[in-house]
Predict the structure.
Amino acid sequence: MTMNPWQRENLSLSRLAAVPWLAAAVCVCVLAPCARAAVPLELPPLAGDGAAEHHVGKVIWADLVTPDLAAAEQFYGGLFGWTFRDVHVPDTEYAVAMEAGRPVAGIVQRAIPPGEQKQPAWLTFIAVRQVDSTATAIVKGGGKLIAPPRTYAGRGRQAVVQDPEGAVFAILASKSGDPGDYLAAPGEWIWSSLLVHDPVEEAAFYHKIFGYDVFELPEESATKHEILSSEDYARAGVNALPTDSKRRRAHWLDFLRVADAADVANKAVTLGGKVLVEPYVDRHGGKIAVLADPAGAPFGVMEWTTTDSKVEPK
C-alpha cells in the first residue's frame, strides 16, 4: 500500500466522497471474543522471521469483519484468486487470505445481532512501534480505544481504535517486522483513503500520532485532499466528505491493485457483489472503482501501470 508521494500526487478520490452508502458502521468486535477463547488464535507473521524493516504509519494489513465467512471466501477467492487457511477456535471463525502463497488479509466471522444495522466492513491496520503508548496518545488526542491491546504470538501486538471523527482503524506492532516498500502485485493492497468531514484537522491528528508529513493536493473543486507521507512514500489519502453529509460517518477505504478495473467490477457483480462507484480514469492515469461484496463491505480496486516505482526483485 505504498507509492512515492510525487507519483501519487495526481490521485484524486474526490468522487468517492459523493457516495452516500460510504457511511459504514464497522463491526468493531474483532479482538474481544478472542480473549475468551480457550485456544489462542494463531495469526501468521506479516514478514519473514527476523525482518529488520519497520515503517511506522504504513498500512500493513486489513481484516474483513463479516457475518458469513464461507460466502466471503467464495466471493474474494473468485474475484482475486485468493486461497484461504481457516482457523477455528472457540467463539472465533477466522481465515487468512493468501495471494501467491503470501498472507494478504484476514476474514473474521461476526454475526450481526437481530435488529442492529451494522454494515460489514474492512478494518485497516497501521504500523506502529509500540501499541500501548500509541493507543494512549490516540485517546489523549481525542480518539477512543475500541478494543484494548492484545498480543498474538506469531503476529505481534495490536489494538482497535477510533480517530476524533469516529473512523475506526487498528494499530499493529508486527513481531516479524513490516512488509517492505514495494509496488503491490495484482490482488494485493495498494492504497488507502480516509474520508472525513474535516481533512485538515484529521490530517493534523494523524500527523501528531504517526509523524506523517502532510501534503495538500490542489483540487479543481473546493474538495480538500491531503496526503499522509513518511519515508518519502505516500501512505494514505485524506478526503473530504461532501458538505451535505452530516450523518455520514468518517471511515477508511482500502484499494486492491488490479489489471483491469472494469473487468473486475463486472466479475464482482456476477459473484453477487455491487458496483458502488463505476470505473473511471483517475488523474494518475489508471482506472479506479469502488465495489461492495455480497454482505455489503465496501472496498476499492485500482489499476497501476507506472514502471518507475520500487518493484520487488524476482
